[in-house]
Amino acid sequence: MSMSPLIRLDGYGLSFPVLHGSARSLKKTLFRQMRGAVGGTMQDGDVITVQALEEVSFTLRPGERVGLIGYNGAGKSTLLRALAGIYESDVGVLDVRGRLHALLDPQAGMSGELTGRENIHLFARMLGFDRAATRQLETDVEVFAELGAFLDLPVALYSSGMAVRLGFGLATAPRPQILLMDEWFMAGDQHFQDRAQERLEEMVVAADIMVLTSHSLPVMRKWCTRILWLEHGRVRMDGGTDEVLDAYEADTAALAG
Amino acid sequence: MNVAVLPDPSVVPVRRTAWADLREAARLWRLAVTLGWLDVKLRYRGSLLGPFWLTLSSLLMLGSMGLIYARLFHVTLREYLPFLALSLALWQTGLAALLQESCTCFIDVEGSIRSVRLPYGLQALRVLVRNAIVFAHNIVVPLGVFIAFGLWPGAVALLALPGLALWAVDGLASCLLLGSLCARYRDLPPIVSALTQIAFYVTPIIWRPEQLGSHARLLVFNPFFDLLEVVRAPLLGHAPALRDVAVAVGVSGVFCGVAVLVFARVRSKLAFWV
């Protein structure tokens, strides 16, 4: 895997159905279509289509650390999931090349009923680790998460702090070329924050491209070289960190004032 | 996912993407085996007998049904019990279990689907592994009954293996088809469950096809009969009828075709449906 990583979006759009009520029911859907076929009024049921991303175009090259900002519902997390290959769409172009790792959910792929150690083994298997690499991961996470005897107890018994430490330790073990990170990774108490910061920095430095969502502007200023400001699923502004964040702050202040 | 090189969705046709999904799932078979084992382990963690609880309950059901139906059908236990033990095990932990569990194939793992990029086919493999393990725990019931009555099917029993392989393929197809449809329509699992219950009564599981007399040819319209026969007949000591094999393979072929077509069409929507 020596190719140079790249993320390219061109006119990318993504819409998804939000299903609720009778749209979830096969019987009601069939009944509605039958009524429609015999001349009754055809309703669309409760299927609502949300246009989450529209006409998004940008290219990210090695060395770029990109922050996604925007108000709630602007499409930050959706964009991150699209880049991670979880959400798919055939509108426009989405081209992602390189070994990618996405930190989206602290409990991603973790099972509360399994012990911490079993979760580590499961995670290793998901990444396709061999025996030696698995053992190394186990030691690494054991040291970082400081769980002691809890490592051999089910994760469901952990305090929320312990669960986050384990999840964080696991998620930050791989060394990807492209790192996608959702904002929960900035959460946690101060002691954890300092150690997490250190670990995250190692990972960020090793990655060629990073995309991060956060509401914390200081974090953005510290880590990012470029900011994409999303609004209603479109890119409102794309540019250098200080330039875009200053504009964003001014906008927030105007909204508040 | 550590390695995730995404194809360009604007140039890759939908069919290919579904194919790539299945190929990647096959590559990750070790993970599927681990996940399947963990599912079984978790389901029975903290219980003394583990998956053998299911064996025990099958044994109870077999004992009570065997006594009553042997009387109802005027056959001896020696004639009836081995047949019933095998049929119940094959149906309950084989065909019916696969059908039922394939419904929640994707719904059960919505958290993982939304946060980790893994092929959907992997979840289908996982359901298959899980069911194979439970099946292996339950097949000891008919095995025990066979030994108790001193029956031995002989080498022809090996013919059950291709039959079981056919079930495995159908199980995967069922996960792709019913797993997808049930993610979209949440009232589908109970419908499948009700239909499976009906299939249990109209398929020769607790009764023999000969008991239908001249009406036995109506079984032509029940593909479950042929699917069951390709595994059951060899284990009872005779090769399955060629007609049964042909119907079982034909029906499976159509089923798999429909499953792959539906899966290819809806795969990219699954992340929004679950």
From TrEMBL, chain A:
<dbReference type="GO" id="GO:0016020">
    <property type="term" value="C:membrane"/>
</dbReference>
<dbReference type="InterPro" id="IPR003593">
    <property type="entry name" value="AAA+_ATPase"/>
</dbReference>
<keyword id="KW-0813">Transport</keyword>
<protein>
    <submittedName>
        <fullName>ABC transporter O-antigene exporter ATP-binding protein</fullName>
    </submittedName>
</protein>
<feature type="domain" description="ABC transporter">
    <location>
        <begin position="32"/>
        <end position="257"/>
    </location>
</feature>
<dbReference type="GO" id="GO:0140359">
    <property type="term" value="F:ABC-type transporter activity"/>
</dbReference>
<keyword id="KW-0067">ATP-binding</keyword>
<dbReference type="InterPro" id="IPR015860">
    <property type="entry name" value="ABC_transpr_TagH-like"/>
</dbReference>
<comment type="similarity">
    <text>Belongs to the ABC transporter superfamily.</text>
</comment>
<dbReference type="InterPro" id="IPR050683">
    <property type="entry name" value="Bact_Polysacc_Export_ATP-bd"/>
</dbReference>
<dbReference type="InterPro" id="IPR027417">
    <property type="entry name" value="P-loop_NTPase"/>
</dbReference>
<dbReference type="GO" id="GO:0016887">
    <property type="term" value="F:ATP hydrolysis activity"/>
</dbReference>
<keyword id="KW-0547">Nucleotide-binding</keyword>
<dbReference type="InterPro" id="IPR003439">
    <property type="entry name" value="ABC_transporter-like_ATP-bd"/>
</dbReference>
<dbReference type="Pfam" id="PF00005">
    <property type="entry name" value="ABC_tran"/>
</dbReference>
<dbReference type="GO" id="GO:0005524">
    <property type="term" value="F:ATP binding"/>
</dbReference>
<dbReference type="InterPro" id="IPR017871">
    <property type="entry name" value="ABC_transporter-like_CS"/>
</dbReference>
Automatic annotation (TrEMBL), chain B:
<keyword id="KW-0472">Membrane</keyword>
<feature type="transmembrane region" description="Helical">
    <location>
        <begin position="245"/>
        <end position="264"/>
    </location>
</feature>
<feature type="transmembrane region" description="Helical">
    <location>
        <begin position="48"/>
        <end position="69"/>
    </location>
</feature>
<feature type="transmembrane region" description="Helical">
    <location>
        <begin position="188"/>
        <end position="207"/>
    </location>
</feature>
<feature type="transmembrane region" description="Helical">
    <location>
        <begin position="158"/>
        <end position="181"/>
    </location>
</feature>
<keyword id="KW-0813">Transport</keyword>
<comment type="similarity">
    <text>Belongs to the ABC-2 integral membrane protein family.</text>
</comment>
<dbReference type="GO" id="GO:0015920">
    <property type="term" value="P:lipopolysaccharide transport"/>
</dbReference>
<feature type="transmembrane region" description="Helical">
    <location>
        <begin position="128"/>
        <end position="152"/>
    </location>
</feature>
<keyword id="KW-1133">Transmembrane helix</keyword>
<protein>
    <submittedName>
        <fullName>ABC transporter polysaccharide/O-antigene exporter</fullName>
    </submittedName>
</protein>
<keyword id="KW-0812">Transmembrane</keyword>
